[in-house]
């Protein structure tokens, strides 16, 4: 039993990366098949999120070796920016499927402000981490110390935008494909929130953490898959 | 949904629409020559109403852009009804390289048009359209209607159905051709089927996943008064227009099509249960039309319950889960042998009921029907 669990624990991270990599491929393929800009961006957004999470995993490894919190801060910022890219494109896409074509929370203008805040927050967090590490050589205590750490600044804006704008947009849009896409990606975000993204938590409980991340990656895959309305199983002729 | 399962390798043949490479003043061209050829070679029949169905993002509206552009190029009056603003549509036109000349259309739009669109006021909208049609009463008129899904979502099905009926009648009365778009995935299957039946023809554009590929596919569902090419075509948009490639390689759009081969009834390529149901529907059609002297339009419609009782197939063969079609009915629909329609007000309290019959408008099905009734007057 113990051996089996140990073997499974060593396989799960690879499965996690494999599912994410396939999600990237699927998203790019869907993007190529679509013709309207907003929907192409939305499909690409799912792929970018998957790619950012693969890079974050690499980042953890590099961070563990080099001890660079700047890199981690930038990696986290990148994840948040890809998430915001998807939120942005989803809100814009759902507007087109709203029968009254409403501009939720004046998103067409608000998005520029939120983009600015997310990018600025990422850069500020990286600069602070860089400064602190250069002067003291350790992790800045205010960076990832609890959920209000400065390092999490980019997430505040992204999550606020996602929590407020997306449900309203999804309710207004009547398109079942977009709703499914948003629903699965929401499940992904919730699962990764459960795990947390601190390097220490990844290192402490590899099997448990990767188990949840693996399930999260399946949700992300489903999110990409939901953008294709018709699936033809090989050889069934349906 | 796809009749042949997995796709073989795509043929090398590729057809690109180019403005003016197909001139025909008699029939309204769609503005996309490969699509005209799919529809039977010369565009679609005069005074027809064509519905384009597809999920968001596949750019079904593009067919409306080229349809308008082609009409204006020929000097025909065009009416463009859209739930978007004129500016947004123009932005889309620019991204597709649709001629700026196409902007000479009359617009009923959410913003920026000559008339403002109110999707909740259907009588008012019909009045606006009638006024435009009466103003431009010379020659053929083209109408693009890109607000059907919004109307369906904000009004009841009965009201919308009545509106669509009136819209099509008005268009025909004013010698107009109508092209409307409908979002797939936003309406129940029965609503979509009801809309398909209301129009003279429909084109499906959707994304299909097969193996590791995602393919944007187009097919002509039906086209009254024409003999459209069957099958799925991979579509894409480029600076030169819309490209269509045969998905299976059996058709070559753009080349003169040989007459369709004689298909004996024995060649109906469906499973045993589907064949039993098809035979029953064929006999019902012949019986209605020849023995009961019912009109072609009304002949042969049978409910699924009646068909189950008459053929002895299982209920699950025709009824799927959650109100969907069962596997046998799906097989018949995907092979183009059978069509379905929602009949409103057929049950108590104004409910609707779905019925099916043989797709007699299709040439090979017509042959089969005539073969069954051999020795008697052929079904026209």
Description of the structure:
The complex is a heterodimer of chains A (238) and B (380). Chain A has one domain (2-225): Rhopdopsin 7-helix transmembrane proteins. Chain A is built from eight helices and one strand; from the N terminus they run ααααααααβ. Chain A has helices at residues 2-33, 37-66, 69-97, 107-136, 153-172, 176-195, 199-204, 206-225, and one strand at 230-232. Chain A starts with a helix and ends in a 6-residue tail after the last strand. The model of chain A is unreliable at 233-238 (pLDDT under 50). Chain B contains twelve helices and 14 strands. Chain B has helices at residues 33-38, 61-73, 86-96, 122-135, 148-154, 157-173, 189-198, 272-291, 304-311, 315-318, 327-334, 363-372, and strands at 15-16, 49-54, 78-82, 106-109, 115-116, 141-146, 176-183, 201-210, 213-223, 233-238, 241-246, 302-303, 338-344, 352-358. In chain B, the strands form two sheets. In chain B, strands 1-11-10-9-8-2-7-6-3-4-5 form an eleven-stranded mixed beta sheet, with helices on both faces. Chain B has a three-stranded antiparallel beta sheet with strand order 12-14-13. The relative contact order of chain B is 0.14. At the A-B interface, helix 1, helix 2, helix 3, helix 6 and strand 1 of A face helix 5, strand 8, strand 9 and helix 11 of B. Strand 1 of chain A pairs parallel with strand 8 (201-210) of chain B, so a sheet runs across the interface.
Helix content of chain A: over 70%
What fraction strand of chain B?
Answer: 15-25%
Task: Assign the CATH architecture of chain A.
Answer: Up-down Bundle
Q: H/E series of chain B, N to C?
A: EHEHEHEEHEHHEHEEEEHEHHHEEH
Given this structure, which CATH class of the largest domain in chain B is correct?
Answer: Alpha Beta
- Overall shape of chain A: it is globular
Distance between the termini of chain B: 29 Å
By DSSP (H or I, 4+ residues per run), the number of helices of chain B equals 12
Oligomeric category: heterodimer
Total strands of chain B: the figure is 14
């Amino acid at each position: 039993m113990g051996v089996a669990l140990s073997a499974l624990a060593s396989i799960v991270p690879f499965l996690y990366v494999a599912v994410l990599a396939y999600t990237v491929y699927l998203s790019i393929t869907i993007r190529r098949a679509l013709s309207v800009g907003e929907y192409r961006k939305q499909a690409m957004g799912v792929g970018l999120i998957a790619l950012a999470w693969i890079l974050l995993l690499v980042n953890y490894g590099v961070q563990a070796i080099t001890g660079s919190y700047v890199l981690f801060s930038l990696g986290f910022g990148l994840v948040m920016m890809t998430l915001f890219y998807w939120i942005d494109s989803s809100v814009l896409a759902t507007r087109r499927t709203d029968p009254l074509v409403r501009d939720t929370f004046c998103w067409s203008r608000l998005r520029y402000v939120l983009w600015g805040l997310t990018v600025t927050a990422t850069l500020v967090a990286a600069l602070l981490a860089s400064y602190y590490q250069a002067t003291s050589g350790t992790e800045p205590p205010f960076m990832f110390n609890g959920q209000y750490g400065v390092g999490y600044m980019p997430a505040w804006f992204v999550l606020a935008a996602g929590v407020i704008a997306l449900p309203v947009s999804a309710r207004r849009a009547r398109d079942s494909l977009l709703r499914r896409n948003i629903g699965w990606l929401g499940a992904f975000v919730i699962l990764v929130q459960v795990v947390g993204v601190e390097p220490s938590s990844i290192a402490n409980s590899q099997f448990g953490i990767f188990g949840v991340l693996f399930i999260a990656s399946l949700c992300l895959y489903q999110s990409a898959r939901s953008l294709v309305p018709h699936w033809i199983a090989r050889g069934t002729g349906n | 949904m796809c009749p042949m399962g997995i796709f073989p390798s795509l043929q090398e043949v590729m057809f690109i629409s180019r403005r003016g490479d197909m001139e025909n003043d008699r029939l309204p061209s769609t503005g996309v020559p490969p699509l005209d050829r799919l529809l039977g070679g010369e565009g679609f029949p005069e005074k027809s109403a064509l519905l384009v169905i597809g999920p968001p993002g596949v750019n079904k509206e593009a067919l409306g852009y080229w349809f308008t552009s082609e009409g204006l190029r020929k000097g025909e009056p065009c009416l463009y009804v859209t739930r978007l603003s004129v500016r947004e549509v123009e932005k889309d036109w620019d991204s597709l390289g649709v001629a700026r000349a196409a902007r000479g259309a009359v617009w009923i739009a959410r913003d920026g048009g000559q008339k403002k669109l109110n999707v909740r006021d259907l009588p008012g909208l019909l009045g606006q359209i009638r006024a435009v049609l009466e103003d431009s009463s010379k020659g053929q008129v083209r109408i693009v209607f890109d607000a059907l899904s919004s109307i369906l979502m904000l009004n009841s099905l009965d009201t919308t159905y009545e509106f669509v009926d009136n819209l099509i009648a008005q268009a025909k009365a004013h010698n107009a051709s109508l092209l409307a778009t409908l979002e797939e995935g936003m309406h129940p299957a029965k609503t979509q089927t009801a809309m398909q039946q209301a129009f003279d023809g429909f084109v499906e554009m959707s994304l299909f996943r097969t193996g590791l590929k995602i393919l944007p596919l187009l097919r002509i569902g039906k086209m009254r008064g024409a003999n459209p090419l069957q099958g799925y075509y991979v579509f894409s948009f480029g600076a030169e227009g819309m490209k269509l490639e045969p998905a299976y390689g059996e058709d070559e759009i753009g080349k003169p099509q040989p007459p369709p081969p004689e298909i004996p009834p024995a060649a109906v390529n469906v499973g045993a249960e589907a064949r039993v149901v098809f035979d029953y529907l064929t006999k019902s059609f012949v019986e209605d039309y020849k023995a009961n002297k019912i009109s072609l339009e009304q002949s042969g419609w049978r409910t699924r319950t009646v068909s189950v009782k008459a053929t002895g197939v299982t209920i699950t063969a025709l009824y799927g889960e959650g109100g969907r079609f069962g596997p046998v009915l799906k097989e018949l629909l995907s092979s183009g042998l059978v069509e379905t329609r929602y009949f409103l007000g057929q049950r108590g309290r104004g409910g609707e009921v779905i019925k099916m019959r043989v797709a007699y408008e299709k040439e090979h099905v017509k042959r089969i029907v005539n073969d069954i009734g051999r020795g008697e007057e052929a079904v026209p």
